[in-house]
Every structure is written in structure tokens, then in C-alpha cells.
Amino acid sequence: MDAISDDLQSFEPSLPLLKTDSSTGLMLENPTFNLHGLMDFSNDGFFPQPPEFLVSIADDNLLGFSNSVPLPQSMSSVGDWNQESKMMELSKSYSGQSPTQVSEVGLKEGGKIIRKNSFGKRRRGRCREKQVEKPTEVVHVRARRGQATDRHSIAERARREKINKRLRKLQDLVPGCYKMMGMTAMLDEIISYVQSLQNQIDFLSMKLSAADSFYNFSLEMEKIERQTTHALKAQIWGGPHFREIEEEEELRFIRGKKLLGDLSSWGIGGPCNYYIEVFDESHLISAVRHCCRHSVQILVIGKGSNCLFDDRGFNGCIILNRIDFIERVGPGAYRVGSGYPFNRLGMQCSKEGFSGLEFAGGIPGTVGGAAFMNAGANGQESADTIENVSIITMDGSHRVLNRSELAFGYRRSCFQQMEDMAAIVAVAFKLTPSVSAMEWQRTYLERSRKSQPLQDHSAGSVFRNPALGSMVSAAELIEKTGLKGLRVGGAKVSDLHANFLINCDGSTSRDMHQLIDLVKEKLLTKKGIASKRINLLVKWVSADKVFLSAGE
Ligand SMILES: NC(=O)C1=CN([C@@H]2O[C@H](COP(=O)(O)OP(=O)(O)OC[C@H]3O[C@@H](n4cnc5c(N)ncnc54)[C@H](OP(=O)(O)O)[C@@H]3O)[C@@H](O)[C@H]2O)C=CC1
Ligand SMILES: C=C(O[C@H]1[C@H](O)[C@@H](CO)O[C@H](OP(=O)(O)OP(=O)(O)OC[C@H]2O[C@@H](n3ccc(=O)[nH]c3=O)[C@H](O)[C@@H]2O)[C@@H]1NC(C)=O)C(=O)O
């Protein structure tokens, strides 16, 4: 409480008369202030406990610096008084200096008395004259046994109680706050709650821009956003899955029950042992260090658009990347947090007249995921525009890898083999000016809308296309094998695009796994395609182990 009370001194304008600086003098001389300045305490449940003394003081006592504090009449009716309360009434008539006398500190200007209030603002003399006519008012103050009744102490108690009342309101507003024991922890909780709300606004504004006539055909993007927003909301409002929280330093791990299905575009996956959202690099480093210290394996995910999670969950810590800053460092040059939505970046760059990420407008992952996978479509790929990538390693150090070190290939990057990498934290892009970027983006998005099942729960293409130079795509092979519509449980090969396996009816991870295996097997028997040539793009995350891609 002490920590906050200093910070909250600025809330004091309602108690300026208690100050001992020069401004106090002016306020004390202002008869209007005596009641009005304190009036808003009257409804505040001034005392936390039933008070024991009732002190009634004429408001002019202020002027004579009595050891009682003038308070509004209404205060005398606060709360139910304790039966054991001792009542004491001090009633003094208005005596001593007249208000007119004491207020003559004002400056005469043009025959009128001009006064200044504590903020140095002018106040007309006639206001004072009105106040002078006010009848003497008796005010009552109550104090508990043993509590000081001097005006400083009473007013200080009033100030603290007022702050407490506001804090209690905050506690009611912010879920989980009641749990917090210390003021610092509570304020931290409030800060992170407000930040979460800000992030929600971010998501919603992204949704709004998607609803723009140009973008609203990107249904898949909306779907993913909806899922993420839903998960976020669930966290904010503290649903049953988010009650168990492990804290360390600034970290807040949600333990045991966060459902991976809520974090994946497939909507499949059981609970993970630990879950944390990270918002900046240092936060991420702390989370990684904490996990390493406790030998907990980690998995950094973005939008979960490329992962097949196990129904049994994940025996480790899922770190959801929400490092989502964007810096414009020059014309067409962007440095972007790895948790930034890739589709949003693509849309922004095109809108700003730069070419290179038009394809990204329809890609549901994050910037980090796009660098990791070298995401691509429509003849473009992330590698074309990436200048460098900042990562943190498992020992918590920061490294910047330049373009020449990134070893990009078709859906490949050096990161997929980098054992000491903890996560990508930021990516620098360089794009070229273009007047037709938006037009191209519109064409690509329109094409995807027609050829891909964007409304369904999927992870995009499941199989890699055969080696470059091959005249046939994975989708074509699957279609020609007659596998469109093939089902295992709730998992199905899309009727629209054969390389999309969709969760159409509560698919389990097992259903999806079996469907993937079945497709591979049929391609092998019917087309004679060696299974190693139809590798998977999606990452299979089993309960205990992360594979580079399912089945590999
Ligand atoms: N063209 C299309 O239509 C589609 C493309 N995609 C692409 O799939 C990718 C998925 O992105 P996203 O949904 O964000 O990723 P996911 O959340 O699905 O994560 C998938 C894997 O990517 C790696 N990864 C993600 N973010 C980071 C990071 N910041 N640092 C290091 N590794 C990271 C992790 O691998 P690890 O565990 O090894 O660290 C993670 O397991 C994107 O490239 C997306 O463009 C997805 C669907 C459709
Ligand atoms: C969806 C993804 O990316 C997509 C990306 O959106 C598109 C658009 O450029 O190009 C790739 O798909 P793709 O190779 O299947 O491209 P498409 O243009 O859809 O299809 C290629 C060929 O297959 C044929 N085709 C496609 C679907 C189908 O059901 N049947 C079929 O015969 C098409 O007629 C076309 O001749 C990426 N997939 C891979 C594995 O590289 C992803 O990475 O998850």
C-alpha cells in the first residue's frame, strides 16, 4: 500500500487544504472549498471499520486551524455505527476571522477582486461573496477508538480509504485480482489485464480491416482470428481452464489445462502441462530460462496453423508468441515482431505500395512461423523479402542471422535444423515499390477463396509438393488417386482441395493421423509413389516429442 500511496498523491486535488505548501494557504482562504473540496468523500464509505467517535465541527474551524477536520454534513450518516461506539460531538459556532477577511489575499484588478485558486487560475470575487452568505454548517467526523482525530490524520485516512475503494472497484473489474496478496502483484495483474484488452482490440481491428470490402473474402483468416480471440477472451475472463497458475518473477504459467485444440487451426489437441503467452523478447527469454531450469521442454507456437497436436496433450510448456510490434525502418523496410500476423503484414505492405508479400495476405500464420517455414504461395515466398532474422538461443542470448545464413529452400530454412534456437523474435523485410501490389493481392486471395476450403478447420496443405521440377502437385496426385472425400472418423480429405485434410466433425488427432497414413499408403499402392517423396508440411506434436513434420 505504501508503494502506491506515493504514486497516488496526484489524486489529491480533493484534499488540497491539507497541504502545507503555499498553495494551501490560498485554498484555506477559500470558504467554498471547505465543503465542496471534501464533498466527494461523503459517499465513499469513508471508514473501513465502524468508527468510534463522532466529531462535529463547524466548517469555519478550518480557518482557525482547529485539530478537527471539517467534513460535509452527509458524512455523519455514513454506515451503521457500532453499538460500542463512543459518540463525541464538538460543535463550534463560526467564530474568529470572517471569511471575508481571510480571503482578501486576492489581487485587485479593475476595481474587482480577482482571486486565484490552488491551480493559479483566476476566480471572480463575487463567487466568494456568495459563499460568505452561506449559513454556518456543522459537520461530523467519526473516528475509531485510538485513532487520531487531528485533521491531518482524519483526512489522510479519508484519502487512503478513497483509494482503497477505487482499488476494490478495480479488483471487481479485473478477473483474478482478488487472488493477489500484494499491491505490486495486484497492479501487475491489472496492467497485464489492460494489455490483454489492448491486444484484443488489436485482433478486432485486424478483423475489421478484413471486413473491408477488399479483404472480406479471406474467410480463413477470420476463422483463425476468431479462434485466437476466443482463446484470448477465455484467458482474460478466467474460464475454468485458467484457474491454476504458477508464478515466478514476472512469469505467469497456466498449469495443466490449456487446450491445444483452442490454439490450433485444426481445432485438435489436448491440454498442455504449462502454457504462457510472451509479449516481448525479455519476457520470452525469462520463460525459456525458467523452463530450462526446470527441465521442461518447450514449444514456441504462433497461430498454430501448421501443427497437429496430440489429443493426449503436450508434456511440456507451450509458449504462445505474441511479440507483435512493427517498425517501419525505411521505404519498404519493415522490422516486425515474430508474433505479428503474417496476413496482416502482407495486407499492410501491399496497401502501402510495396511488393513482395502480396501472397502473405491469405496466410494464416505468424511472421515467425513464415520465416521458420519459408511460407510461400503464388510464386512468391518469404525468403524473397527477408533481410535478416533475430533469434534467441536456448541459453538466452540474442543473435541476428543475415540473409546468406538462412539456407532457405522450398518450405525450408536453417531454423528447422537449429538445435540451440529457442525462438525467432523478429524478422526484417525489404520490399520493392509497386503500384499494383494490392491488385495482385486481391487476385491471389480470390484464387485461394475459390480453390481452398477456407471455412473449414485445416492446416493448409498437409503434404509437400514433390521435388521441384516435378510436373505434378501433391493435390493433383491425391485427387487422381480418387481420395477426395476420404474419411477417417471426423477427419476428411477436402472435396475442394485434395491437399487440405479437414476436421469436419470433431476429428481426434488419431483420426487425422490415420487419414494421413491412409493417403500415403494409397498413393504408394496406386501410384507407386515412395512415401518418402510425399513428406508432410505439418508438424506433428506428440505428447512427449515434437517431430519436424508428421510421420517423419
Ligand atoms: N500457404 C498456406 O496457405 C499456409 C501456410 N502455413 C504456414 O505455416 C506456418 C505456420 O505459422 P504459424 O501458424 O505461426 O506457426 P505454428 O504456430 O503452426 O507453429 C508451427 C511451428 O513453427 C515454428 N515456429 C512458429 N513460430 C516460431 C517462432 N517465432 N520461432 C521459432 N519457431 C517458430 C515452431 O517450430 P519448433 O517447434 O520447431 O520451434 C512451431 O512448432 C507459416 O509459415 C504459415 O505461413 C500454414 C497454413 C496454410
Ligand atoms: C496451402 C499452402 O500453400 C499452397 C499455396 O497456397 C498454393 C497457392 O500458390 O500453392 C501450393 O498449393 P498447390 O501446389 O496445391 O497449388 P494449387 O495451385 O492449389 O494446385 C496445384 C495443381 O494441383 C491441381 N489440383 C489442386 C487441388 C486439387 O484438389 N486437385 C488438383 O488437381 C490444380 O489444378 C493445380 O494444377 C501451396 N502448397 C504447397 C504444398 O506448396 C500451404 O503451404 O499450406
TrEMBL record:
It comes from Persea americana (Avocado). This is Uncharacterized protein. The lineage of its organism: Eukaryota, Viridiplantae, Streptophyta, Embryophyta, Tracheophyta.
